[in-house]
Amino acid sequence: xxxxxxxxxxxxxxxxxxxxxxxxxxxxxxxxxxxxxxxxxxxxxxxxxxxxxxxxxxxxxxxxxxxxxxxxxxxxxxxxxxxxxxxxxxxxxxxxxxxxxxxxxxxxxxxxxxxxxxxxxxxxx
Length: 125
Prior knowledge:
0% strand; mainly alpha; 73% helix; Serine Threonine Protein Phosphatase 5, Tetratricopeptide repeat; 8 helices
């Protein structure tokens, strides 16, 4: 998979968010979160792309999927302008891990924001 990442990096030199996000998404779906984390870390360290909410949300999902909520929270806290999907992904991961209070704190944070209010999905996590 790293070979594929290298080919995309050389060929498109950071101009194709979609391909990077797809690589990460496939790795997360295939339960290869450690490899996705390596690709993600490399993307960040080499400044291959400027991370957007989609890229970060894929990693949040992967970390939550493997129970690594602290890693998910770190990505969430470092991203600029988390969107509704990012919030919902992290809240769902927290609730599945039994961290209800942490999930409720995020919902409260959303309520105070004018940019990203909770919706039905948020409340059913």
